[in-house]
C-alpha cells in the first residue's frame, strides 16, 4: 500500500467495559462512587501526613507521595470512562489517545519505582535502625521521590516513541475503556510484531526488575528480623504485610498484561480496571487499617475539624434558613 492511499485516523472508538445500554447507568454509578472514594481516601492520607507533625518521617512522606500517584493513576482515564457511560458513541481524538498512553506509563512506571523506594526505606528502618535518620535524610527522601518520576518519564517516552509514528489508516476500535498501548498498536496498518516485542520488552524489564528488587529487599528484611525479639518480628511483619499486599495487587495485573506477551484474553480489561481503579482505592485502606499512627492522626484531624456540636449546629442553621426561605415564599404568594 502506498503512503498516498493512507487515510489517517483522527479518532479512536473506545468499546468501554460493556456494550449493554441497560448496564451503562449502573456502571456509571458504581465507578463514580469508586472514583470519589479514591479521591477522598488518598487526599485524606495526604492531608493527615502533612498536618500531623508526628507523621513527618520518611516513611509517611513516601506514603503521601504514593497517595498522590494513586490519584494520578486513577484520574488519567476514569473521568473519560465516566463520561462515556453517558453517551452512545465513545470516541477519543488521536492526540488525547496518545496523551492517555503517555500518562498511564508515566504514573504506573513511577509508582513501580516509588514502591521500591518505600521498600528501601523499610530496609533501612528495620535492618539499620541506629543509622535510619542519618541515611534517610531529607535530601535522600527527595531523591527517592524524584527518581520514580524520572524513570516513569523515560519509560513513557520510550513507549510513546514506538507508537507515535505508526500509520493508523483503518481500524480504530480499542477494546478497552482507555487507550491501552498494546491494543492501540494492533490497529496500525503495518506489521507491528517487532514493535510489540519492543513494547513488551520495555514494560517487562521495568516491571520485572522493580518486582525482583522488591522481593529481594523483603526477603533480606525478613531474614534480618528472624533472630530478633518477637515484638520486633511482629512489628516488622505488620509493616511488611501492608507493603507486600500493595505490591502484589499492583504488580500482578501489570505482569499479566505487559510481561505475558500478546495475551488475547478478555480478562485483560478486568485487570486494567483493577490496577487503574481498584488498587488506588485499596492502598489507603491497607495502609490505614494496619497502621495505628495513621489512624490516631486521622482521629485527631477529625476531632479538630469536626468537633462535637458543630455538625448539629450546622444542621440547625440549614433548617432555619430553609424555614425562613419557605416563609418568604408563602408571604410573597399571599401578597400576590
Could you characterize the architecture of this molecule?
The structure is a single chain. This protein is mainly alpha-helical. It folds into 2 domains: 3-305, Rhodopsin 7-helix transmembrane proteins (Rhopdopsin 7-helix transmembrane proteins, Up-down Bundle); 312-336. Helix content is 74%, strand content 3%. The protein is built from 12 helices and 3 strands, in the order βαααβαααβαααααα. It has helices spanning 24-51, 58-75, 78-84, 94-127, 132-135, 138-163, 181-185, 193-225, 230-259, 267-289, 292-305, 310-335; strands at 11-14, 91-93, 173-174. It has a 3-stranded mixed sheet. It is globular. The termini are far apart. The model has no long low-confidence stretch (mean pLDDT 81).
Ordered list of secondary-structure elements with their pairings:
Blueprint: E1 11-14, H1 24-51, H2 58-75, H3 78-84, E2 91-93, H4 94-127, H5 132-135, H6 138-163, E3 173-174, H7 181-185, H8 193-225, H9 230-259, H10 267-289, H11 292-305, H12 310-335
Parallel strand pairs: 1-3
Antiparallel strand pairs: 1-2
Helix pairs in contact: 1-2, 1-3, 1-10, 1-11, 2-4, 2-6, 2-10, 4-6, 4-8, 4-9, 6-8, 8-9, 9-10
Amino acid at each position: 500500500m502506498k503512503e498516498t492511499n493512507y487515510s489517517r485516523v483522527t479518532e479512536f472508538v473506545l468499546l468501554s467495559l460493556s456494550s449493554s445500554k441497560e448496564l451503562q447507568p449502573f456502571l456509571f454509578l458504581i465507578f463514580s462512587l469508586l472514583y470519589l472514594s479514591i479521591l477522598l481516601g488518598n487526599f485524606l492520607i495526604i492531608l493527615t501526613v502533612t498536618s500531623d507533625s508526628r507523621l513527618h518521617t520518611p516513611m509517611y512522606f513516601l506514603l503521601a507521595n504514593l497517595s498522590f500517584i494513586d490519584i494520578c493513576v486513577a484520574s488519567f482515564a476514569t473521568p473519560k470512562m465516566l463520561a462515556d457511560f453517558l453517551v452512545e458513541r465513545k470516541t477519543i481524538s488521536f492526540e488525547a489517545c496518545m496523551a492517555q498512553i503517555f500518562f498511564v506509563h508515566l504514573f504506573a512506571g513511577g509508582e513501580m519505582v516509588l514502591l521500591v523506594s518505600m521498600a528501601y526505606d523499610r530496609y533501612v528502618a528495620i535492618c539499620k535502625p541506629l543509622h535510619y535518620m542519618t541515611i534517610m535524610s531529607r535530601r535522600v527522601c527527595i531523591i527517592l521521590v524524584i527518581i520514580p518520576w524520572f524513570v516513569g518519564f523515560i519509560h513513557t517516552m520510550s513507549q510513546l516513541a514506538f507508537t507515535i509514528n505508526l500509520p493508523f489508516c483503518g481500524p480504530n476500535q480499542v477494546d478497552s475503556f482507555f487507550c491501552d498501548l498494546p491494543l492501540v498498536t494492533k490497529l496500525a496498518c503495518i506489521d507491528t510484531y517487532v514493535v510489540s516485542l519492543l513494547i513488551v520488552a520495555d514494560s517487562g524489564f521495568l516491571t520485572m526488575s522493580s518486582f525482583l528488587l522488591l522481593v529481594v529487599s523483603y526477603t533480606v528484611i525478613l531474614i534480618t528480623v528472624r533472630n530478633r525479639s518477637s515484638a520486633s518480628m511482629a512489628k516488622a511483619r505488620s509493616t511488611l504485610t501492608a507493603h507486600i499486599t500493595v505490591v502484589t495487587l499492583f504488580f500482578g495485573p501489570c505482569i499479566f498484561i505487559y510481561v505475558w506477551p500478546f495475551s488475547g484474553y478478555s480478562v485483560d480489561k478486568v485487570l486494567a480496571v483493577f490496577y487503574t481503579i481498584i488498587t488506588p482505592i485499596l492502598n489507603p485502606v491497607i495502609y490505614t487499617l494496619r497502621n495505628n499512627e495513621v489512624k490516631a492522626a486521622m482521629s485527631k484531624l477529625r476531632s479538630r475539624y469536626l468537633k462535637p456540636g458543630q455538625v448539629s449546629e450546622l444542621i440547625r442553621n440549614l433548617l432555619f434558613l430553609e424555614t425562613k426561605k419557605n416563609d418568604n415564599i408563602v408571604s410573597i404568594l399571599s401578597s400576590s
